[in-house]
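Protocol step 6 of 9: fold each sequence in the batch and record its C-alpha cells directly after the sequence line. For illustration, a two-sequence batch is reproduced in full.

Sequence one:
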Amino acid sequence: MASKKERLDVLLVQKGFFSSREKAKASIMAGEVYVDGKRIEKAGEFVNIESSIEVKTNSLPYVSRGGLKLQKAIETFNINVTGKIALDIGASTGGFTDCLLKHGALKVYAVDVGYGQLDWSLRNDPRVINMEKTNIRFLETLPEIVDMITIDVSFISLELVIPSADKFLKPEGDLIALIKPQFEAGREKVGKKGVVRDPAVHREVIEKIVTLFQKFNYGIIGITYSPIKGAEGNIEYLIYGKKGIEKQHNFDITKIVKEAFKNL
C-alpha cells in the first residue's frame, strides 16, 4: 500500500515544528526545511508523512516575513539592487527595507503612516532614513530621486499610492508592488475575514494594476505570486515594472493565478 502524503507546510504543523502554516511557509521559503536530506522550497509540495524532516534553523533571514515576498521578486526577475537608492512605501516593521539592504541597496527611505513599528536594527542602520508618520500621498519632496520603489501597503489601493510615488522615481527606475486583492477588489467581492477566494476576482485585480502601470508609462517586466499568504490568508502578487520603457504586456494572468491557488 502506498504511503500517505501531505502538504509540507501542513505536515510541519502536525509534527509540531511550527504553530501555524504561515510560519511553516516562511521557513520553507527561507530554505530551512529539508525532507530526507533534500531541501524543499515549495510549501505546497506533497511529501511522505513518514519522511525524515529537519528544520536547520528557526529564524527568518529578515526582520519580518515580508522580506521573503520581495526576495521572490528580486530573484524571479533578476533585479539588481546593489548600490541602489530605494524608497520603501509601507515599510512597517521593515521586511522589504531589510531585504533591500541585504541585497546591496545603498540607502532606503522607509516610509510608513504608522509610528514605532520599524525594527530597532533598522532604526540604527545609517543606510535607513526612517520616515514614520508619513503618508506618501501627502509627501511633496525627498532629498533625491530614487533608483527604485517598493510598495507594500494595506487598507488602501495602489491606485492611490502609485500616482503619488511616481514623481520620486528616476527614468527607467524599478517599481515593485505587492498586489493585495482584498484592498483592490470591490467590497462586495471580499469574503469573510477579508479573504478573496474567487480566482476570477484575483485576475480582475491584477489586470486593474497592469492597466495602472501602463497608465503611468511603466513597462511591465514580470508578474508572480507571493511565496506566502498575507496575514489574513490572502494570496498576494508581485508586479515589477520599469519607468518609461516600452514593453508589450503578454503575461498569462489566468495561469499565474491558477498556479498561486495550487501552490499556496
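Sequence two, same batch, same settings:
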Amino acid sequence: MRKVLPRKFYSRNTLKVARDLLGCFLIRECRGKIWRAMITETEAYRGEDDLACHASRGKTSRTEVMYGEPGHTYVYMIYGMYYCLNIVTEQKDFPAAVLIRGVKIISSSPARGEELEEGWELNGPGKLCKFLHIDRKLNKWDLTKGKKLWIEKPTQNPAKRDIVAGRRIGIDYAQHCREYLWRFQIDYQD
C-alpha cells in the first residue's frame, strides 16, 4: 500500500518541510520500472525576500508554479543541460519550494543502461534528475496523485541530531541570504 504524502504535509513552513523530507522516499515510475530513493539532502527557498529564490523578482511564467498549490513540482534547467526538482510548499500565492539535492537508491532498477545499486547515492540535483528521468515534462506535477512521481512517508525519520544544517550551494549572488543555513542533510557519521 502506498503511503503518499498528503497536500497538508507540503502546506507548512518551507524550512520544516525541507527537514521533514529527509528520510522520505522519492518514487519514480517510468518505462515500466519503479525507482525508490531515500531523500538525503534538501534546500529551502522561501518568498520574494529570499534573494536566492527564483521568485525574488516576482511572479513570471517560469516561477508561477511556486505561487500555486503546495505539493506540486517545480522542475527547471540549469547550465542548459541539467534539471532540478523542487517541491512547492506553504500556501497558494506565497512563493516557496524545497530543492531535492540528494537521494540514496533503495531499490535496484536499470536506468539509462546502468544498474542503480542499492545504497548508491545520487548527490546533486542534476544527477538525480538524470538517472530518475525527471525533466520539464514533470513540471507542475501533483505529487499527491501517487502516479509517475511521488513521495512516501519514511519507515523511520532521522533523529534531529542526525540532521546537519548548512549554507545553500551555488548562491553567492544572494547577498545576506547566502548566509542562511537552509540546506539540510542526513549526517551518516557515527
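Proceed to step 7 once all outputs are recorded. Observation for sequence two: The CA atoms of residues 171 and 178 lie 6 Å apart.
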